[in-house]
User: Fold this.
Amino acid sequence: MSAPAIEFRQVYKSFNHTPILVGMDFAIQSGETVTIIGGSGIGKSVTLKLIVGLLKPEAGQILIEGEDIVPLTEDQLIRVRKKIGMVFQGSALFDSLSVAENIAYPLREHTAMSERQIRERIMETLRLVGLEGAEDKEPADLSGGMRKRVALARAIALTPRIILYDEPTTGLDPANTEKINELIVDMDRKLEVTSVVVTHDMRSAFKISDRIGLLDMGKIAVVGTPREIERADLPLVRQFINGTVA
Assistant:
């Protein structure tokens, strides 16, 4: 059996002596879409940053396709990060650059592609996210939903094998939330990627996930399919589903 796409082994992470992750063990298989839910400040976004190497744990191993990335230097991490696309909570677009220039940025930084090849890749990613014709627009001219889609186009520009989504539907109206959910499912199917989604939105989690993990007290306390989570007779799960967890 091949190694999981992502695996946490006894991972510990704290900030200012406050424990965030406490011996976390969790594996995500290749091709899965796993959503991590949990209360505010519990460590969901920290988990994403650990996966991409933006943070390092105090102890434990974080394996990406079987390779422990914890001991890697910043230069060595570049190779790993090319496998991973990330959609940040606020989209994190460069406001001074056009849509096309935002998508081109990682291609110019990390590949030897010609300008013609870069242009073709920009057009391809915009088609995938349903934004044909938007390449010359400025981020300030885009709606919240369109900004999220541009962020996704940039995240897939380097053809990653893993995509991380940090609160992809936060701040969106119901119609745009549904479009982003459909897009995540569509990307998983078309690109055959492994996806990790952090969200407070249980409706989104149930729609897009193969499995849902509930992060609590520094560990994945409960994990299961959407159906299993929906039926789980555990107080913490019921509280979160019913919206009573902060």
Notes: The longest strand covers residues 18-28. Residues 6-83+160-241 form a domain with the Rossmann fold fold (CATH 3.40.50.300). The mean pLDDT is 89.
